[in-house]
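Hello Y.,

Per our agreement to keep a running log of every chain we model this quarter, I'm adding this entry. I've kept the format consistent with earlier entries: sequence first, then predicted structure.
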Amino acid sequence: MKRFLLFLAGFIVAGALWAQVPQGISHQAVMRNAQGELLADQSIGIQVSILQGTMQGLAVYVERHEPVSNANGLITYVIGQGDVLEGSFAGINWADGPYFLRTEADPGGGTNYTIEGVTELLAVPYALHAQTAATYDEVDPLFQESPAAGITGDDVDNWNEAHDWGNHADAGYLTEETQSLADVLAQGNDGSMHQVRNIADPTDPMDAATKAYVDLLLDRLEALELESGIIVADADGNTYGTITIGNQVWMRENLRVSQYRNGDPILTDLSDEDWENASEGAYAVYPHESVDGINSSEEMVVAYGKLYNWHAVDDARGLCPAG
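Predicted structure for the entry above:
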């Protein structure tokens, strides 16, 4: 099966101040085809399985949904409230995990599932486990031979005297901290299993590293990707992943640059009439009010890029990244 090709998922805890914990987990996904196009306004066949133990573990619960995507390809459904094929959602013992969620999708709305994804359930189902935790009787631990036995509020000096607490003897309690960082690191190992040196420029596998050092590595990685052509950058510094189709290299996202490759700005903010009569390159941003789920021009640019007239595309100063 094609794994994670068309399916992007996110979890939302189905929780509120209810008298009873809701038996369900709200689940949303954006559906796209192999070309990255949104699958809008169509029925999607979904099969959900809760697996126990591993990603290939036993399915303790299986159900089916038939949500209809909206104009943005978004589908929403509640795990635990579908057509049950196997098991009981309410009967899942969340304490007996780990559990994994397997989602299978048929973009045609049937049961010919061609998309599959498996991810581990972490915090979400354990909100449901809270209802079972409330059924256990709490038993306070019984402390015996406590080191505090016999110490009164005025007996401060007693804290630094030697005592014998049955099977545990000590030479007294420290009144001030004397441990160094090396003392702390040496606890529980032979002294050769720890290292926090060269933080600014790590040399060994166990060296600690600063965020600045990691950011530097990420910058170098991006530079290598740019050099190799895995990603390309426009004149604004925006980067785009690429994909090779036949002998052509395509960007994975729509262009959103605001200047030509030589740094000259591209004309924008034209009226409808000026846009129609323009004799030079210009760009515009599609009205975000016309697209569900997009709340600003900035979000529109991130999601769909900018719109350019032919003069901008044909300009000798270059619009797209080189190559």
